[in-house]
């Protein structure tokens, strides 16, 4: 679905266009076209593939579901895949933004992505002195806005993890704690897989040889790269904290099991002592001095009760019971 198709010249908007009229605007010197699609159909993308001379492999990646983020250079254009995070309650959803960047065009295709990115276009049009740099600045504005979407998500994940760490020693439901920790680990891995490849991808856009499409805009992409590295650093810290919390939770489970085992051992020792006494006095020997003693039965009960009470007090003092 076409979101918008706008023609710019020297940083100012010239006209809104249709896909069919794009070729005639591209022929005019100084123009560049910014096309935005959402959940593009194959006929729409094939039209633009022909008009912008897009590489077949790059177009196929758009329709192949969620792809690994990357920056690829082709003969006529750059192809960038980014992922955008969004929260659904406590569920993390990742959408995909595909960006084709040529010398006089930018084509962005959002697939299963909730972020509208309309603010990026508004920001660019408020800065004609930057927009006059053409497609390079649009790529920077889009990638900067998408990478910045990760900061509140990472901060939210960090806050939730701190809250769980606070209550973990008071919440006795170890299984629930472990499920939440593994949920945090899954989310951090999803975010890491969306950001880690970009560190290498965007390092190609500044320093040394850079693609012709972004020549002169290297410093802006260095800024995006710095944000990516900062987010990766935060995620590494979160992952380390999660691993530590999992080990602590397992230790708490082991401690709880140890307390239960000590209680069982204490009561088991008391029962074993009683069993020993009853076993001895239950033997059917003819000549046993206690069998014909008038006070044998109450004495046996007294010995068993006294011995059991003595063990109970010792175990209680030791904290086993």
TrEMBL record:
One of its GO terms (molecular function) is magnesium ion transmembrane transporter activity. Belongs to the CorA metal ion transporter (MIT) (TC 1.A.35) family. The keyword Transmembrane helix applies. InterPro entries: CorA_cytoplasmic_dom, CorA_TM1_TM2, MgTranspt_CorA/ZnTranspt_ZntB. This is Cobalt/magnesium transport protein CorA. It catalyses: Mg(2+)(in) = Mg(2+)(out). The chain crosses the membrane at residues 264-283, 295-312. GO terms for cellular component: plasma membrane. It comes from the Bacteria. It is a multi-pass membrane protein. Mediates influx of magnesium ions. Alternates between open and closed states. Activated by low cytoplasmic Mg(2+) levels. Inactive when cytoplasmic Mg(2+) levels are high. Pfam families: CorA (PF01544). It is found in: Cell membrane. PANTHER family: CORA FAMILY METAL ION TRANSPORTER (EUROFUNG). It comes from Acidithiobacillus thiooxidans ATCC 19377. Keywords: Cell membrane, Ion transport, Magnesium, Membrane, Transmembrane, Transmembrane helix, Transport.
